[in-house]
Write a structure and sequence with these properties.
This protein has 896 residues and is α/β, with parallel strands linked by helices. It folds into 5 domains: 1-114 and 210-252, Dna Ligase, domain 1 (2-Layer Sandwich); 118-208, Acyl-CoA Binding Protein (Up-down Bundle), CATH 1.20.80; 262-351, ATP-grasp fold, B domain (D-amino Acid Aminotransferase, Chain A, domain 1); 390-523, Phosphohistidine domain (Glucose Oxidase, domain 1); 558-647 and 691-895, Phosphoenolpyruvate-binding domains (TIM Barrel). It is 46% helix and 17% strand. The chain has 37 helices and 33 strands. The strands form 7 sheets. It has an 8-stranded mixed β-sheet. Strands 26-27-28-29-30-31-32-33 form an 8-stranded parallel β-barrel, surrounded by 7 helices. A 5-stranded antiparallel β-sheet has the order 1-2-7-5-6, with helices on both faces. α18 links the parallel β18 (454-457) and β19. α21 (542-557) packs across α37 (884-895). The longest helix is centred in the last third of the chain and has 26 residues, at 610-635. The radius of gyration is 32 Å and the shape is elongated. The model has no long low-confidence stretch (mean pLDDT 92). The chain binds phosphoenolpyruvate (PEP) and magnesium ion (MG). Phosphoenolpyruvate (PEP) is lined by residues 585, 587, 646, 770, 791-794, 856-857. Residues 544-895 form the PEP-utilising enzyme C-terminal domain.
């Protein structure tokens, strides 16, 4: 097996080989192929990672000789030799999963140095200080990430930093002097002390053989695939463990040889707001790690023109080449060594939803991509970022800007400030809105960043850890707000004469980069203002226009329709404005949550005689009829699936003493009577209890009332010119006979209403498929049902035998153990529940070839589930009103 792929003069791989070579390795190969300047090297494949874990952390036998050939190839291209005493080859070792993954071991630089080669490097470069500084950094990095010499819980500082501080104190009486002040002698002494530290802590000598160093570093990369932070990250982004990581070994180039050198990170366009501009930053006389670590604040890339104009123009040329070749915005790392530019990495740039939208629209205009590709370039699960509120304009004008920073993640966020990730998580768990404020962030802060509404840092540029991660998560982020003085010990932030404590409110505008004191009210996104509130100013914004363009393309591509789950005329109006083509589910019991309607509902449930029940139903009928009329009107001729009552009893019973007393007073009956009925009706498993069509089977008068309400409303709406299309849906059907009995009532009432009102109503009757027996006997059920709608909430609950209400306590552990990748109540369990759906579709069509098929469980708004429904050949998905754009985008992506 081939485990090692070369890149350089001879390149084995290419950009399509990400599963095998990882993202970094595949793109290094691709850059070599298109003639960009890349230092030579090789990639060890992800298959070695898989082997490593399958075989007790050992390597395949053939690996060593292939690595030796890889090193030999670098030696031939550079004229240097690994471990050589005159012209030693030094390499970097970097991880490279399919997608870059914060939390994994990142980089070891200057590998190959030891007590002998350092002298050779000093002689060759005629720069002893440079050589010893490289060596000192190498021992420190390697000791930390490969040999595990790290801060212990009882220590305040990294152990290597403590050693440096002590030496500075001894020699200069000040542990805060800059590293650049250290002499060759100091650095030599540091290397000695570092090695001593390694021996004490790791219990072994620092490896001096370059080959031992290389094998150790590769092992550390593979080992880091399973560290906690990497696991947390994979879980959040659903990255399978079995993908594994590759390892890249590459000849070193130096950005820290003096003022003709430097390192930087850049994007071919602005990844925060999408503007077409060269975007990024660099540091003169620095290695790449210094730029992303956020320790020195770098300069914007445009200013490179003033320092090294030749290198700047070369980078502009590379920027254009990259976009033309990859046809997407690239995020790349470069090093300039003595004025010559080298590319160390390129990848598709992480971007906010706003930037993704603008890139996609602009690139179609520039003819870089077609409109179908533009649809795919907008991540469906990020789209709701565009619908998130922005600060209320009037409020923001009144607020005081206390600091400004870089606008790193657009949007508006207000919250209580916390200065540490654990406390931010704890506060968010209590339901507080949280802003995580840090001097700079590191991968340890990931949990806190996930929990926070927004992230604010005092240091670091637009490519700092905070900025990258925030953009990817769609968090609001302002970074490098250098006026903030953050004191972790006192838990305070001091800025322009004011001091804020943990728990105080701050607000940040990640579009402008502003920081405000206090809490600021928000206003709806321009898209919502434009579509739902017909706000003409909002409609004139670029954001609104781009969004509507994208939705137009989606409509052109889509086969699967998107309907909405709506219970009120207002929700219906919103959904139609977002492009819904009908209602897939009206939960009629939800119509009684409002105001004192619940009383009539409770009376109906508690009634213990037909007479009492009919009296309560008579009160419910006009409410329902009015609501249905409003919905038909808002739908403008689109169909409405009206689901008959399905009230899980525990959600509707008056359970508290107060509710019971209140209801007794209103009904003018003794409270004891109510208590008695509540007691009689109590269920141990309400979700499997007296709900769905079971209610109408036992009390047919309920079905009759609902049929009357729907059909009378339809009759009126029809007379008023609104073209209603009611689709009456009977829930929780497992037996054909259940449906037959209910449908008979509907037809009987329909005949009566049509005769009374002298209109012909265009209605259909169908059922939900939401219990396994319904799916398995769908051929029988389809004899009566004119349509099916998959109720995947209940179908998941009953297929998996996991309560939709009570699974929270163990689902987390299930996902951690990778028994299931995603929460099955959020994203369809395709192999299990999906199979039941497949059976129902096939059997339903056997009986009724043109049966209309939809889904109305919560899964209808989940992009992966929507794509699955497209594959199954459903007619529509139905989701909550604000998810409609997400579902439309996912449906279009499934079709292009
Ligand atoms: C379902 O079960 O998927 C469904 C849509 O119905 P409900 O959530 O009201 O039970
Ligand atoms: Mg259901």
């Amino acid at each position: 097996t081939k485990y090692v792929y070369l890149f350089g003069k001879k390149t084995d791989g290419n950009g399509t080989m990400k599963p095998l070579l990882g993202g970094k390795g595949a793109n290094l190969a691709e850059m070599c192929r298109i003639g960009l300047p890349v230092p030579p090297g090789f990639t060890i494949t992800t298959e070695v990672c898989t082997y490593y874990y399958a075989n007790k952390r050992t390597y395949p036998a053939a690996l060593r000789s292939q690595m030796e050939a890889g090193i030999a190839s670098i030696e031939a291209q550079t004229g240097m030799k690994f471990g050589d005493l005159e012209n030693p080859l030094l390499v970097s070792v970097r991880s490279g999963a399919r997608d870059s993954m914060p939390g994994m071991m990142d980089t070891i630089l200057n590998l190959g140095l030891n007590d002998q080669t350092v002298e050779a490097l000093a002689k060759k470069t005629n720069n002893a200080r440079f050589a010893w500084d490289c060596y000192r950094r190498f021992v420190q990095m390697y000791g930390d990430v490969v040999l595990g010499v790290q801060k212990r819980p009882n220590e305040d500082h990294e152990p290597f930093e403590t050693v440096i501080g002590t030496l500075k104190d001894e020699r200069y009486g000040n542990h805060e002097i800059e590293d650049t002040k250290l002499t060759v002698e100091d650095l030599k002494e540091l290397v000695l002390r570092f090695k001593k530290l390694v021996l004490e802590r790791a219990g072994k000598d620092f490896p001096s053989s370059p080959w031992d160093q290389l094998v150790g570093a590769a092992g550390a990369v593979f080992g880091s695939w399973m560290n906690d932070r990497a696991i947390v990250y994979r879980r959040k982004y659903n990255i399978p463990t079995e993908w594994g990581t590759a390892v890249n070994v590459q000849a070193m180039v130096y950005g820290n040889t003096g003022d003709n050198s430097g390192s930087g990170v850049a994007f071919t366009r602005n990844p925060a707001n999408g503007t077409k501009e060269f975007y990024g930053e660099f540091l003169i006389n620095a290695q790449g790690e210094d730029v992303v670590a956020g320790v020195r604040t770098p300069e914007p890339v445009a200013q490179l023109k003033n320092h090294l104009p030749g290198a700047y123009h070369e980078l502009e040329r590379i920027r254009a080449t990259l976009e033309k070749h990859f046809k997407d915005v690239q995020d790349f790392e470069f090093t300039i060594q003595e004025k010559k530019v080298y590319m160390l990495q390129t990848r598709n740039g992480k971007r906010t939803a706003m930037a993704a939208l603008k890139f996609s629209i602009d690139m179609v205009k520039e003819k870089l991509i077609d409109w179908q590709t533009a649809i795919l370039r907008n991540p469906a699960d990020q789209l709701d970022q565009l619908l998130a509120p922005v600060f209320d304009l009037a409020e923001v004008k009144k607020a005081a800007v206390i600091a400004t920073g870089l606008p790193a993640g657009p949007g508006a966020a207000s919250g209580k400030v916390y200065l540490n990730a654990d406390r931010a998580v704890a506060a968010a768990e209590k339901g507080e809105k949280v802003l995580l404020v840090r001097i700079e962030t590191s991968p340890e802060d990931l949990r806190g960043m996930i929990a926070a509404e927004g992230i604010l840092t005092a240091r670091g540029g637009v490519s700092s850890h905070a900025a990258l991660v925030a953009r990817q998560m769609g968090k609001v982020c302002v970074c490098g707000a250098s006026a903030l003085v953050i004191d972790y010990d006192k838990k305070t932030i001091t800025v322009s004469g004011q001091t804020f404590n943990e728990g105080d409110y701050l607000s940040i505008d990640g579009t402008a980069g502003n920081v405000y004191a206090g809490q600021i009210a928000t206003a709806p996104s321009e898209i919502i203002a434009g579509l739902v509130h017909n706000d003409t100013a909002a409609q004139a914004t670029e954001k609104f226009k781009s969004f509507t363009q994208l939705m137009k393309w989606c409509a052109q591509a889509t086969r699967l329709q998107v309907r909405t789950n709506a219970d009120t005329p207002e929700q219906t109006r919103v959904a139609v404005a977002f492009g819904a083509t009908g209602i897939g589910l009206t939960r009629t019991e939800h119509m009684f949550f409002e105001g004192n309607r619940i009383d009539a509902m409770r009376e109906m449930i508690l009634a213990d005689s037909l007479e009492d029940r009919q009296a309560a139903l008579a009160k419910l009928l006009p409410f329902q009829r009015d609501d249905f009329y409003g919905i038909f009107k808002a739908l403008k001729g689109f169909p409405a699936t009206v689901r008959f009552l399905d009230p899980p009893l525990h959600e509707f019973l008056p359970n508290s003493k107060e509710q019971q007393m209140d209801l007794a007073r209103k009904m003018n009956i003794p409270v004891e009577k109510i208590m008695q009925r509540v007691h009689e009706l109590h269920e141990f498993n309400p979700m499997l209890g007296f709900r769905g069509c079971r209610l109408g089977i036992k009390y047919p008068e309920i079905t009759a009332m609902q049929a009357r309400a729907v059909l009378e409303a339809a009759a009126q709406a029809q007379k008023d010119g609104f073209k209603p299309k009611p689709e009456i849906m009977i829930p929780l059907v497992g037996f054909k006979k259940e449906l037959d009995l209910q449908v008979a009532i509907v037809h009987e009432v329909a005949a009566a209403v049509q005769a009374e009102k002298k209109v012909k109503i265009n209605y259909t009757v169908g059922t939900m498929i939401e219990v396994p027996r319904g799916a398995l006997t769908a051929d029988e059920i389809a004899q009566t049902a004119q349509f099916f709608s998959f109720g995947t909430n209940d179908l998941t609950q009953t297929c998996l035998g996991m309560s939709r209400d009570d699974s929270g306590s163990f689902l987390g552990a299930y996902q951690e153990s990778e028994i299931m990748k995603k929460n099955p109540f959020a994203s369809i369990d395709q192999t299990g529940v999906g199979q039941l759906m497949g059976i129902a579709i096939q059997k339903g069509r056997q009986t009724r070839p043109d049966i209309k098929l939809g889904i109305c469980g919560e899964h209808g708004g989940d992009p992966d589930s929507v794509k699955f429904c497209h594959k199954l050949g459903l007619t529509y998905v139905s989701c909550s009103p604000y998810r409609v754009p997400v579902a439309r985008l996912a449906a279009a992506q499934a079709a292009v």
